[in-house]
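User: Show me a protein chain along with its predicted structure.
Assistant: Here is one chain, sequence first, then structure tokens.
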Amino acid sequence: MRIAIYVGTYVKDKDGAVRSIYQLVSSMRSAGHEVAVWSPDTSPDDDASNGVYRVPSVPVPVYPDYRLGFSNASTERQLDLFCPDFVHISTPDIVGNSFLRYARRRGIPVGSAFHTDFPSYFSYYRLGFAEKHVWNYLVKFYNSCDVVLAPNEIVRKKLTSKGIRNVELWSRGIDKELFDPSHRSEPLRRSWGGDGRTIFVYAGRFVLYKDVDVVMELYRRFAVEGMGERVRFVMIGSGPEEEQMRRRMPDAVFTGYLTGRELSEAYASGDLFLFPSTTEAFCNVVLEALASGLPALVSDAGGCMELVRRSGGGFVSPAGDIDGFYAACLRLMQDRECYDSMRRQGLEFAEGKSWAAVNGSLIERYGRMVAASSGRN
């Protein structure tokens, strides 16, 4: 098959959605398929020579780390020259919509993956009135695709409840060689001032819609309860709320944005993973933490809770409930048997989430769709 992919950003390790696409591209090429990727945001060393095309773009207002792309005549010429058998769309934006129209005009089967629950972000910026209009657009967009891919059952039910049809599951995998407890580093823990302390790890964007206010309030709660000297918060990432977080969490460790071995070492060198976000579709970072041997503490809204409940690898607390999160933290700090059980269950769950198996099923599904389309044509 020749598979054309459009994704809003294609910079390796920039976020969980991008890591999923990199793994999918790798799986497709390993299976002998030709893949070309279009994106407004690419790595400097990516170009047409390795099958990556950059579309025109401008920075997203208020969120300049990401870019808004535009399709033009050269994009369509590139698609014509590639002559795809299947079109995969990861971002339903302006360019994603042009790829959808291209596929529909030419009778090419098209699938779209729901990576990010963008509509849920609006309420964090007092733009809740726009959520309905965005969903109206998304329903129309996704219902024009042949298949819509949800990362888990929670998201599948949400999409179908909005009136979106043809929703199937495409889960996410984990690189077990990269994320593993063996990467734990005692020197790194000492550099964090973690000797004799429980280390809480957060990994992700420092933005309101990741519910970082819950993390800041938990930090304050430990201090108020006289427990500040028993814990260390390690914040992996960056974002617009970083200045506020540094001010409100003066003793926390801010590592900046980490990738590769540095990231896996940081995960494995922690004790607990704290991620209260309610806006996740799948939550790759929780799976990475479980694979690294960290029990996870998450909210009862969004995709994180399904991973924790299915694995048994942590606690699910009511969204925004500081008391609930604090109690869960104390339980794992004080009950070694509970901690060890959740850690073991999380590791066992991650062992069964290889990318080869997850992506192999999707590639086979696409192959059947291409074959059926060829038969009709």
